[in-house]
């Protein structure tokens, strides 16, 4: 259903923190023009924790309208409350999203059975394709491969975004490969994950280097291993630079330098520290991205 280079899109904000709808429209067009295969709206990179429900759904609706079926839109609707996740997922469906991305419940640390029941309840309540999202470094909650395997039997659970290790890759591919789509949630290892059998990446780097990320993904999906690794090597410095501070601080700063968005970001996140400016600029240049 979904594959390729999918951008975890930033939410453009003015310097006062308000959402900039006009910049969001331009950003969607930028990704359509540059070959991005899909958009994840209001994920972590889209600052979902600090958007109100009204803003959250408003951004999804705006992206859906602007995308106009030119590429699929996957809405971030995860929460650490099952009832809240259901509400957001229902609203995203009404807004026209093609699927929803649901992060594992954070902070309250459910058991594996709790995770299974959480996702099963959402899937049975809202008839829309669902992509599971596992990022233990942020949530302190790890959905294990055996739980993913149980959930893969539910018809509208269609994918998993995972920040994989090689060991986790092997186990997931053995358990659910070919049954649900697997997406790398970690740009530095996305190429190797796709070469191993994943269907694509949900990418931070694609915010500022959409053509370059798409080229790596296309080569990897086609099995052109040497080409994929050569192209990927040219992005590794940028991948690293975009995480010198908490995501999405560096990528929003980089996108603003490219003229894609204003400089706004919401507390408790703040603008990129001056000491990292050259690191991010060097990362952009290393990927062949020119800017004034």
TrEMBL record:
Statement: the UniProt record of this protein carries the keyword Amino-acid biosynthesis: yes
Site (Part of a proton relay during catalysis): 44, 107
Gene Ontology biological process terms in this record: diaminopimelate biosynthetic process; lysine biosynthetic process via diaminopimelate
Pathway participation: Amino-acid biosynthesis; L-lysine biosynthesis via DAP pathway; (S)-tetrahydrodipicolinate from L-aspartate: step 3/4
Superkingdom of the organism of origin: Bacteria
GO cellular component, as recorded: cytosol
Entry keyword set: Amino-acid biosynthesis, Cytoplasm, Diaminopimelate biosynthesis, Lyase, Lysine biosynthesis, Schiff base
Pfam families xrefs: DHDPS
UniProt-annotated catalytic positions: 133 (proton donor/acceptor), 161 (schiff-base intermediate with substrate)
Entry GO MF terms: 4-hydroxy-tetrahydrodipicolinate synthase activity
EC number(s) from the headed UniProt entry: 4.3.3.7
Database matches in InterPro entries: Aldolase_TIM, DapA, DapA-like, Schiff_base-form_aldolases_AS, Schiff_base-form_aldolases_CS
Subcellular location: Cytoplasm
Signal peptide: none
Major place of residence: cytoplasm
Catalytic activity: L-aspartate 4-semialdehyde + pyruvate = (2S,4S)-4-hydroxy-2,3,4,5-tetrahydrodipicolinate + H2O + H(+)
Binding-site residues, pyruvate: 45, 202
Family (UniProt): Belongs to the DapA family.
Function statement: Catalyzes the condensation of (S)-aspartate-beta-semialdehyde [(S)-ASA] and pyruvate to 4-hydroxy-tetrahydrodipicolinate (HTPA).
HAMAP family the record matches: DapA
Protein name, entry field: 4-hydroxy-tetrahydrodipicolinate synthase
Species name: Steroidobacter denitrificans
């Amino acid at each position: 259903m979904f594959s390729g280079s999918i951008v975890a899109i930033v939410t453009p904000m003015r310097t006062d923190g308000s959402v900039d709808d006009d910049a969001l429209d331009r950003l969607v067009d930028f990704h359509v023009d540059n070959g991005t295969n899909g958009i994840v709206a209001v994920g972590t990179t889209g600052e979902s924790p600090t958007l109100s429900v009204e803003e959250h759904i408003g951004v999804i609706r705006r992206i859906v309208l602007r995308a106009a079926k030119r590429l699929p839109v996957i809405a971030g609707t995860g929460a650490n409350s099952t009832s809240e996740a259901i509400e957001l997922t229902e609203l995203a469906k009404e807004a026209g999203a093609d699927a929803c991305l649901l992060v594992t419940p954070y902070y309250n640390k459910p058991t594996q059975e709790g995770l299974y029941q959480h996702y099963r309840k959402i899937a049975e309540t809202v008839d829309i394709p669902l992509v599971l999202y596992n990022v233990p470094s942020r949530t302190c909650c790890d959905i294990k491969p055996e739980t993913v395997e149980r959930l893969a039997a539910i018809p509208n659970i269609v994918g998993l975004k995972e920040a994989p290790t090689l060991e986790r890759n092997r186990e997931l591919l053995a358990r659910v490969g070919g049954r649900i789509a697997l997406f790398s949630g970690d740009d530095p290892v996305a190429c190797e994950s796709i070469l191993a059998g994943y269907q694509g990446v949900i990418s931070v780097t694609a915010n500022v280097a959409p053509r370059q990320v798409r080229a790596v993904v296309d080569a990897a999906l086609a099995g052109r291993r040497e080409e994929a690794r050569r192209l990927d090597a040219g992005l590794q410095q940028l991948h690293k630079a975009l995480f010198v501070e908490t995501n999405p601080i560096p990528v929003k700063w980089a996108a603003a330098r490219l003229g894609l968005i204003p400089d706004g970001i919401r507390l408790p996140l703040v603008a990129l520290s001056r000491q990292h400016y050259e690191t991010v600029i060097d990362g952009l240049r290393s990927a062949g991205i020119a800017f004034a």
